[in-house]
Amino acid sequence: LSFAQCLWCYTNNTCMDYPVRSILPSSSLCSLSNARWGVCWMNFEALIIALAVVAGLILVSITVCCCYCCYCRRRSRSRLDEEEEQLARKREERRLQSLQRKHERKLKHDEIRKKYGLLQDSDNPYSRFENE
To answer: Is pLDDT above 70 for 106?
Structure first.
């Protein structure tokens, strides 16, 4: 078929104008299995089936992609929440360890100050006497 406007019908071997108003030619003009349009080797039934399969595959692939993306987002969000919670726990542990080390240092320094009489305690009778 050289013209895309031509609808070839094998039952009566005629080329008629393609019915522009309707997408599919009516069965009164020519049956779908005997109608050819665009290429001679593919009938309208095969064309409709092929287009339906392609459209179905596209819809299924879009649905699968959307579901997979939503699943990945939900999974990554939960993973991020877990990581954030773990980081907060580690941060709190580090803070507590730091406070513990600070307290130990203070005790050690207080011992040294007490040993050399630098600590201003009222308990210590041998405290250093400073004149100004």
So the answer is: yes
Backbone angles phi, psi at 57, to 5 degrees: -65, -40
Three-class DSSP category at 70: helix
68 lies in the same domain as 99: yes
Q: 76 vs 61, 69, 86, 114, 126, CA distance in Å? A: 22, 10, 15, 56, 66
Residue 52 included in any domain: yes
pTM above 0.85? no
Residue 110, domain member (yes or no): yes
Confidence band, pLDDT 50/70/90 cuts, at residue 1: very low
Domain residue limits at 27? 1-40
- Residue 26, domain member (yes or no): yes
Q: How far apart are CA 98 and CA 121, in angstroms?
A: 27
